[in-house]
Each structure stands twice: as structure tokens, then as C-alpha cells.
Automatic annotation (TrEMBL):
Gene3D superfamilies: RlpA-like domain. Keywords: Signal. Residues 47-100 form the RlpA-like protein double-psi beta-barrel domain. This is Plant expansin-like protein. The lineage of its organism: Eukaryota, Fungi, Dikarya, Ascomycota, Pezizomycotina. PANTHER family: PTHR31836, SRCR DOMAIN-CONTAINING PROTEIN-RELATED.
Amino acid sequence: SHTGEGTFYDPALGSCGIVSSSSDPVCAISHLLMDAKKTADPNKNPLCGSTILVSYNGGKQVPVKIVDRCVGCAQDDLDLSPSAFEAMGADKNAGRVKIAWGFA
């Protein structure tokens, strides 16, 4: 499992070629993890579409789908859709919270 910081963003067309909205349970993972599995076509990265379980403050695990790479993220950070950020009980006013996550 991984521990890092969680932030949120308004998803659109991500590096996986998947169009998402702020109400979709999706995330962008660190460019370091994404690029470790790099393929010639970024849409075919094996991490694309994978489900991870993320939690905040020891709370419930929320399933989110990987749809993008986060250039500003440290290795174990996630950039989440606003709905996923709130679903795990985090306050959007905080902006950045400590999270734990792992592949489902």
C-alpha cells in the first residue's frame, strides 16, 4: 500500500484517452508510477482503467479509476476528482490531505 497526499482537480480528457467529469470517481497517479509502465501509446498504459482503493484519515476505502498522470505529484500522491475527494470524507477547503491507497 501507499501513503501520500491527496488533492483534487477537474478531470477532462486524461492521458489514458478517457474523458471524465468532476462527478466521476477517477484519479490521476504520479507521473513517476505512470511512466514506469510507459507504452508507446499512452492510452494503452497498463495502469489506465485500473481501480485503486483510497482512504483519508483511516476512513472508508473509496474505489477510483486511474485515467490520467499527475506531473505535479510526488510518487505516492493522487490527484482525485472532486467527487472522489469528498466521498472519502475529505474537506475540499483543506485542498491537500494525507491519504492511503492501494490497487484493488
